[in-house]
What does this fold into?
Amino acid sequence: NAGVTQTPKFQVLKTGQSMTLQCAQDMNHEYMSWYRQDPGMGLRLIHYSVGAGITDQGEVPNGYNVSRSTTEDFPLRLLSAAPSQTSVYFCASKDSYNEQFFGPGTRLTVL
Amino acid sequence: SQQGEEDPQALSIQEGENATMNCSYKTSINNLQWYRQNSGRGLVHLILIRSNEREKHSGRLRVTLDTSKKSSSLLITASRAADTASYFCATDAGNKLVFGAGTILRVKS
It folds into this structure.
């Protein structure tokens, strides 16, 4: 199993550009989520999904969109990038025992 | 706002010593989890303790949970240099896992 995979690993955007961070898991987990991690802080939940076709907002959803068309994929879209969105983004999926499995992260810089 | 808050923010110990990290939280939870993050990497799940459990062990890890005080502690015994990492507690109150800011542990050899 590859677990949770994320692409790209690194990305630099200019203010106002849009992009999609990709996340996929091959463990057939229903629950998936996106977090951002800023220096000196823990992870903050952006959006989550409890299954295909179902998404909901987390703690810091503004500026981000998600969709869940399949169990495997959970992309995160930045609609109009801002410097405040410079961060490391982690995708995770959760098993039936509530253990979360994290991807390696995407380091995003917005200039 | 973050649910869990770890204490201390940073901890430096010698190899072989024990390391204790504490976590406090604000609301009712279903379970509390501890994660480790090595520099520049993703988080790795260490242990989960349910709200009706008071203590749990996994190898050199011991976690306690006091729901009356809304606090938890993580004890790493006989620490190794490889334990150097950031440690986060996370509270699960349903579909949202809320993380604290973490404790940076440095184990000197």
About this structure: Chain B has a mean pLDDT of 93. Chain B touches chain A through 24 residues (CB under 8 Å).
